[in-house]
Specification:
Helices cover 80% and strands 0% of the residues. It is built from seven helices and no strands. The radius of gyration is 30 Å and the shape is elongated.
Length: 183
Amino acid sequence: METPDDRKEALPSAFQEHLGTVSEFYARHNEDLSPVQRAVEKISYFLGSPGYIVGNLVFVVLWIAWNLAAPELGFTQWDEPPFFWLQGLIALNAFVISTTVLIRQNRMSILANHHAHLDLQVNLLAEEKNSKIIQMLEELRRDMPNVRDKVDREAEELSKPSDTGAILAIIEESSDQLNCERK
């Protein structure tokens, strides 16, 4: 059976370097967490677990069952129907869950913004590299005596690097128009 180390060794070294860089990025991002943020993360994971949901449901059912059966069994009823205290506990629970989820989503949003920025940088660099490769291939084709020299309009167009500023301006303009149409 193949181990994770065997699979990792089968990868090209450049890929292993990238894996290391990505791992370092996440490690750095996790190191920057404050103790409070770490606690919120742990709470958020716990609150989002199936066990927590099941535990809540069992708690609510037992609370209702106890408070309905207590007078008949000779015990004190804590919370008479419509279960005012249970409603308060559920509201508090909802507040805690929604707050921890929002805090975690804010952090995930920041991380997603970092990813989007990195993706943009890599894509722009790849586009520049592709343009350069096309330029070099066209030069090579023109310089080779045994290759027929012909004009390739598409290759000429693709060999020109994109104007990133113009592209971003068009995207912003399109998104502004979409937002105006929605209002």
